[in-house]
């Protein structure tokens, strides 16, 4: 289950490179509504190994009638970033009307924005929107090197002292515990970056005693721990077995095989697509932020939309029973 996707014809009209291995692409999109909120994302149709697929990217602020995305060429890519990187001006594809599951609340007295690497994409739009309204805010932005910090120069010009950058190559890192400790009581934090950063932020926020509703995050599907491998999935009580390719998610493979699934976010946040793990012959690579660290360690469930097996076979139970449905 998910909201209905409204597809539009899109033509690439501009390409830029705001950082190392980051390609920013602007598309002219037919019938696009005029505005969308920061944190929104779009789906784009790609072709991977000759097969059609869909990938999701944050939309950046851009002119009316256009959608702009910034994509990092990931070494462990399942094929989406490689496809969009080879697009040239004039090439056509299809994109969806943006939707938003990472919205600013506009209710806080102060906003702490945190970006790790290409996680700057939704944070960038939020920072610009907050600055335009004169909201109290601070943005901390970390990456492996300063050359990998997309939009850092532009953000520095607009935010001034409100931006603090940290480069791992320079031995710099930010102290999330201290950052959270000095926030006003009704402040909110918005974070996007690698899985480890999100997990650390969630644990430290909870430790601080602050309401979890005031910590918002956007998830990357790649945990960075393992390279994608194909694996087999057997669905208990159905007799169905499917192979999940290295370039597809378990959720997509199950849906293509006609397995009934409940799902929504496709980003490991909502937990609707979680399945029970009956038996697994290899390590489960959990890439969600729905389950706690303890739950992921127990490996009794996994989010089908992002998590996967490191090869081998897994027997799952979706909880669906034909006799119950009847």
Automatic annotation (TrEMBL):
<feature type="domain" description="2Fe-2S ferredoxin-type">
    <location>
        <begin position="231"/>
        <end position="322"/>
    </location>
</feature>
<keyword id="KW-0472">Membrane</keyword>
<dbReference type="InterPro" id="IPR050415">
    <property type="entry name" value="MRET"/>
</dbReference>
<dbReference type="Pfam" id="PF00111">
    <property type="entry name" value="Fer2"/>
</dbReference>
<dbReference type="InterPro" id="IPR017927">
    <property type="entry name" value="FAD-bd_FR_type"/>
</dbReference>
<dbReference type="GO" id="GO:0018489">
    <property type="term" value="F:vanillate monooxygenase activity"/>
</dbReference>
<dbReference type="InterPro" id="IPR012675">
    <property type="entry name" value="Beta-grasp_dom_sf"/>
</dbReference>
<keyword id="KW-1133">Transmembrane helix</keyword>
<feature type="transmembrane region" description="Helical">
    <location>
        <begin position="111"/>
        <end position="131"/>
    </location>
</feature>
<dbReference type="InterPro" id="IPR017938">
    <property type="entry name" value="Riboflavin_synthase-like_b-brl"/>
</dbReference>
<dbReference type="Pfam" id="PF00175">
    <property type="entry name" value="NAD_binding_1"/>
</dbReference>
<dbReference type="InterPro" id="IPR001041">
    <property type="entry name" value="2Fe-2S_ferredoxin-type"/>
</dbReference>
<protein>
    <submittedName>
        <fullName>Vanillate O-demethylase ferredoxin subunit</fullName>
        <ecNumber>1.14.13.82</ecNumber>
    </submittedName>
</protein>
<dbReference type="InterPro" id="IPR036010">
    <property type="entry name" value="2Fe-2S_ferredoxin-like_sf"/>
</dbReference>
<feature type="domain" description="FAD-binding FR-type">
    <location>
        <begin position="5"/>
        <end position="105"/>
    </location>
</feature>
<dbReference type="InterPro" id="IPR039261">
    <property type="entry name" value="FNR_nucleotide-bd"/>
</dbReference>
<dbReference type="Pfam" id="PF00970">
    <property type="entry name" value="FAD_binding_6"/>
</dbReference>
<dbReference type="InterPro" id="IPR001433">
    <property type="entry name" value="OxRdtase_FAD/NAD-bd"/>
</dbReference>
<keyword id="KW-0560">Oxidoreductase</keyword>
<keyword id="KW-0812">Transmembrane</keyword>
<dbReference type="InterPro" id="IPR008333">
    <property type="entry name" value="Cbr1-like_FAD-bd_dom"/>
</dbReference>
<dbReference type="InterPro" id="IPR006058">
    <property type="entry name" value="2Fe2S_fd_BS"/>
</dbReference>
């Amino acid at each position: 289950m998910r909201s209905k996707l409204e597809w539009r014809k899109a033509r690439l009209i501009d390409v830029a490179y705001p950082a190392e291995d980051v390609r920013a692409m602007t598309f002219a999109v037919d019938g696009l509504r005029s505005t969308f909120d920061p944190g929104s994302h779009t789906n784009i149709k790609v072709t991977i190994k000759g097969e059609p697929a869909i990938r999701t990217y944050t939309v950046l602020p851009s002119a009316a009638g256009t959608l702009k995305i910034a994509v990092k060429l990931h070494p462990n890519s399942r094929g989406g970033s490689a496809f969009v990187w080879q697009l040239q001006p004039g090439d056509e594809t299809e994109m969806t009307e943006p939707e938003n599951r990472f919205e600013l609340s506009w209710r806080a007295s102060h906003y702490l924005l945190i970006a790790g690497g290409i996680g700057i994409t939704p944070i960038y739009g939020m920072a610009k929107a907050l600055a335009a309204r004169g909201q109290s805010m601070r943005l901390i932005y970390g990456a492996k090197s300063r050359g990998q910090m997309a939009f850092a120069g532009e953000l520095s010009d607009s935010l001034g002292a409100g931006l603090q950058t940290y480069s791992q190559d320079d031995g710099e890192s930010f102290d999330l515990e201290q950052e959270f400790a000095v926030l006003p009581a009704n402040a909110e934090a918005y974070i996007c970056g690698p899985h480890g950063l999100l997990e650390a932020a969630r644990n430290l926020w909870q430790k601080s005693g602050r309401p979890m509703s005031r910590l918002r995050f956007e998830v990357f599907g790649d945990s960075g721990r393992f390279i994608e491998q194909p694996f087999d999935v057997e669905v208990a009580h159905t007799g169905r077995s499917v192979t999940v390719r290295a370039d597809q998610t378990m959720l997509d493979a199950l849906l293509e095989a006609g397995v009934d699934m409940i799902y929504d976010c496709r980003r490991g946040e909502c937990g609707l697509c979680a399945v029970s793990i009956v038996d697994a012959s290899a390590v489960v690579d959990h890439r969600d932020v729905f389950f706690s660290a303890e739950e992921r360690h127990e490996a009794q469930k996994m989010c089908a939309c992002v998590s996967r097996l490191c090869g081998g076979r897994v027997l799952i139970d979706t909880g669906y029973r034909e006799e119950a449905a009847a």
